[in-house]
Amino acid sequence: MRRSKRPARGAGRKSGATRTRAALSPRAFARALARRGLIRVPRKVLFSVRLDQDVLEWFRRQGPGYQSRINALLRAYMEVHL
User: For the CA atoms of 43, 47, 50, 52, what is the dihedral angle to 10 degrees?
Assistant: First the structure.
């Protein structure tokens, strides 16, 4: 039987010590909520699409989350044209 090298839960803690999580700033909380969303979104599907190089470069320059922004624009277009 293999034994874990990890100490038992609570081992090494001083008595009375408790685990605490770092509090989220209001901005970090809002960002996490916005990313997770309040409504369930459809599952993402891996898909390959060809875009003009300058369009893709523009989105990439906007920073992290550019794929999500492209998706949001496509969703907005879809909802307007339903």
Answer: 30
Coil, helix or strand for 78?
A: helix
Hey, where are the domains in the chain? 44-82
Confidence (pTM): 0.50
pLDDT tens per residue across span 14-68: 555 555 666 778 877 777 777 666 666 678 899 999 999 999 999 999 999 999 9
Task: Report whether 32 contacts 24 (CB < 8 A).
Answer: yes
Return the closest-CA partner of residue 51 out of 69, 25, 78.
69
